[in-house]
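Hey, sorry to bother you again with one of my protein questions. I've been staring at a protein lately and its backbone has me curious. I owe you a coffee for this, so here goes:
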Amino acid sequence: MPQSANSPRVKICGITNVADAELAVELGAWALGMIFYDGSPRRCSPAEAQVITAALRRRVELCGVFVNASLQEIVGASEELGLSMLQLHGDEGPSFCAEVRRRTGVRVIKAAQVAGSGDVRDLERFHVDFHLLDARAKATERQGMRGGTGETFDWGLLAERRSKVPLILSGGLTAENVGEAVRVVGPYAVDTASGTEAAPGHKDPERLRAFFDAVAQTRLEPASIGQPA
């Protein structure tokens, strides 16, 4: 089903191979997330990232996902791969995020894991291009993971969010729950990794198609889909 102009954009994260990347773009992805973090089962190898970015440059936003990486590492990857977005998913502070933006000229997404309303408020210190809110793992075996847990968080916590920074909603989103998430939150974009996989780092084509179909059936109020600053 073609995506509606009044639906949120879709970011597909945990991309590790060009076949999955091309399918996501064919289905209408706004952005692809490639994770450059050794602790993730969805880590994208530098060699495969080169293939993906060469094949899809100018067709989709190419986002590198980093967790507490050095400024030198982030800048180097951005330049080498021609990334158009950088997602900082660790403990990076506002000044570090600003320096990444200044050094690369690339749009910055600051991600935060949400367990309570304080996590939502804290993110408002970050004057970046996008905020991404993800679930903080509750299951013991997943604690310490940075995203990709398959868990959701209480979307009602976002009712008090006051920031004008465009919001990307993440955390356990699937074809079955993304419609409700959009209705409650009204995000600029939605992000999925584990919710569209056959196994970590490998997409399930049917689950991917179902996710895009579900998003295409959602509607946002005009105020929710304005262009980011």
Q: What stands out?
A: Residues 9-216 form a domain with the TIM Barrel fold (CATH 3.20.20.70).
